[in-house]
Backbone:
C-alpha cells in the first residue's frame, strides 16, 4: 500500500503489498481503544459514518445505506472480532474490493514508507470480481515472485493448498507474508492451466527508475524503465532524462510494463517532465469534479516518445500513459492496461484499525473513465507467455532487440523520426 501525505492512494495500490515488513511490535491500546473494547458497536458506526460522508457513489452502488446502518447497529457485539467481521460484511455490500477494513495488526503492517526495505514475495494483488479469487496486479521486478515466473493477471487459486475462493485481500496477505528464507506455494490459474509456484520469501529492493542509451539503427535511443511510482521516482526520472539529453538521444522509449502504480503526485510530477502544456488528470468525487492537474511548461524534452504498456500497467501508470496519449505527446505500444481508476482515502480508526474508502475516480484529459476498462495502446503488440517468461528469466534483454515490444516501439519511433506520424510535436520530428 502506498500513501501520499494526505492519505490518498490510487486504485491499483489500494491493495496490500505482500511485501510488507515483518515486525515484532505489539499492538498497544490507547484510552479510546480501551473504551472500544467495551463498546465495539461504536466502531461499526464509525465506519458507517465515514462511508456515508465520503464514498464516491452517492447511491452506494444501489445499496440502501441507511437501512444497512439500522441492520448492523441493531446487533449485539461482545468482542472486537465480532465487530470486525460485521464491518467487513457491511462493506462487502458495496461490491467494491478497494473499500476495505483492516484490523489493527493489518493496518500497522501496511503502513510502510515507500522508501523502506520490504520483505516478502514481491507481488501486488487485488480481488478479482469475476472469479471471486485473488488476481496479480504485477510482480515487482527482480522479486522472488518475478523470478519464479508469476505474471500480471494471474489468478491465485490456492495459497499453500488453501482455496482462495471468496478470500479477502487482507487474509491472503497474512497467508503469503512471512519471514525471509521461508517459503509459500501459490497455485496460479493462467488460462485453463493451473501451476504450483513454490516461492522463497526474501528482502526486496525497489529501484523505481532504470535507464540507458540503446544504440539502434535510428541512432542513440533513450530507454527508461519505470517500475513503481514511489517517493523517489520523480527525482530519479528527472535525473535519467537529463542524463540522456546530455547523451544527445534522438528519442525515447518509456517502459511502464508491469508497473502497478503508486503515488498520485509522483505520476503528475513525471507527466510534467514530458508535457509542456495540457491537462494531466482530473479526479471526480460524488459532488462532481474535485481537482484537475495541468502541465506547467516545465517539460525536460520535446523529443519523440513511445510508451510501452501491458496488462500489468495500472493506476498511476494509466494516469501517465493516458495523459501522454490524450495530449498526443506519445504513442502507446503493447497491450491493454489493467484498468484501475479509483482513488482511496486511508483513515485510522479509534481502536488502531484502519479503513480504506474509495472517495473519487480519475479521468484522463479527454474524459475517459478507464476503471475496469484500461487504456488501449495505439499500436497493439502481443507477447506470448513464453516470450514474457524468457524476458523475466533474463531481464537484461528488456529494452533490447530481443524484446518484441521494444522492437515494435522502435518501428513506431522510426516512422515518427522519418516523416512524422500524428501524435508527436514537430520539434521532436526535427531531431
Residues:
Amino acid at each position: 500500500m502506498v500513501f501520499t501525505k494526505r492519505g490518498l492512494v490510487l486504485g491499483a495500490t489500494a491493495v496490500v503489498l505482500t511485501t510488507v515488513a515483518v515486525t515484532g511490535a505489539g499492538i498497544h491500546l490507547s484510552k479510546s481503544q480501551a473504551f472500544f473494547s467495551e463498546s465495539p458497536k461504536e466502531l461499526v458506526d464509525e465506519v458507517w459514518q465515514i462511508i456515508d460522508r465520503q464514498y464516491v457513489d452517492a447511491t452506494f452502488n444501489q445499496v440502501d445505506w441507511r437501512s444497512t446502518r439500522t441492520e448492523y447497529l441493531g446487533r449485539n457485539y461482545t468482542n472486537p472480532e465480532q465487530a470486525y467481521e460485521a464491518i467487513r460484511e457491511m462493506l462487502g455490500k458495496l461490491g467494491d474490493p478497494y473499500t476495505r477494513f483492516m484490523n489493527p495488526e493489518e493496518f500497522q503492517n501496511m503502513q510502510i514508507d515507500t522508501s523502506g526495505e520490504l520483505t516478502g514475495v514481491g507481488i501486488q494483488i487485488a480481488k478479482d470480481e469475476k472469479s471471486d479469487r485473488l488476481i496479480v496486479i504485477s510482480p515487482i521486478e527482480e522479486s522472488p515472485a518475478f523470478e519464479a515466473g508469476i505474471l500480471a493477471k494471474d489468478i491465485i487459486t490456492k495459497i499453500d493448498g488453501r482455496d482462495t475462493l471468496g478470500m479477502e485481500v487482507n487474509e491472503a496477505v497474512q497467508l503469503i507474508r512471512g519471514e525471509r528464507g521461508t517459503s509459500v506455494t501459490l497455485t496460479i490459474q493462467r488460462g485453463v492451466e493451473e501451476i504450483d509456484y513454490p516461492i522463497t520469501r526474501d528482502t526486496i529492493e525497489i529501484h523505481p527508475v532504470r535507464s540507458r542509451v540503446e544504440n539502434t539503427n535510428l541512432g542513440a535511443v533513450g530507454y527508461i524503465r519505470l517500475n513503481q511510482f514511489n517517493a523517489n521516482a520523480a527525482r530519479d526520472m528527472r535525473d535519467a532524462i537529463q542524463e540522456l539529453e546530455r547523451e544527445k538521444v534522438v528519442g525515447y522509449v518509456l517502459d511502464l510494463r508491469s508497473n502497478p502504480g503508486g503515488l498520485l503526485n509522483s505520476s503528475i510530477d513525471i507527466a510534467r517532465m514530458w508535457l509542456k502544456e495540457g491537462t494531466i488528470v482530473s479526479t471526480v468525487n460524488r459532488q462532481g469534479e474535485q481537482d484537475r492537474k495541468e502541465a506547467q511548461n516545465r517539460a525536460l524534452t520535446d523529443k519523440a516518445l513511445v510508451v510501452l504498456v501491458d496488462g500489468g500497467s495500472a493506476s498511476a501508470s494509466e494516469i501517465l500513459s493516458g495523459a501522454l496519449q490524450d495530449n498526443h505527446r506519445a504513442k502507446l505500444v503493447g497491450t491493454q492496461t489493467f484498468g484501475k481508476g479509483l482513488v482511496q482515502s486511508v483513515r485510522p480508526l479509534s481502536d488502531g484499525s484502519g479503513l480504506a474508502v474509495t472517495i473519487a475516480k480519475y479521468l484522463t484529459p479527454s474524459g475517459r473513465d478507464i476503471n475496469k476498462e484500461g487504456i488501449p495502446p495505439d499500436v497493439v503488440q502481443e507477447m506470448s507467455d513464453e516470450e514474457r517468461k524468457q524476458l523475466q528469466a533474463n531481464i537484461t534483454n528488456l529494452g533490447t532487440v530481443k524484446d518484441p515490444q521494444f522492437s515494435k516501439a522502435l518501428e513506431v519511433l522510426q516512422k515518427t523520426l522519418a516523416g512524422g506520424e500524428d501524435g508527436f510535436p514537430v520539434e521532436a520530428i526535427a531531431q
User: Anything to note?
Assistant: Confidence is low (pLDDT under 50) at residues 1-38, 422-431. Residues 8-108 form a domain with the Transcription Regulator spoIIAA fold (CATH 3.30.750.44). The first helix runs from residue 31 to 38. The chain has three domains: 8-108, 120-204, 209-340+362-429.
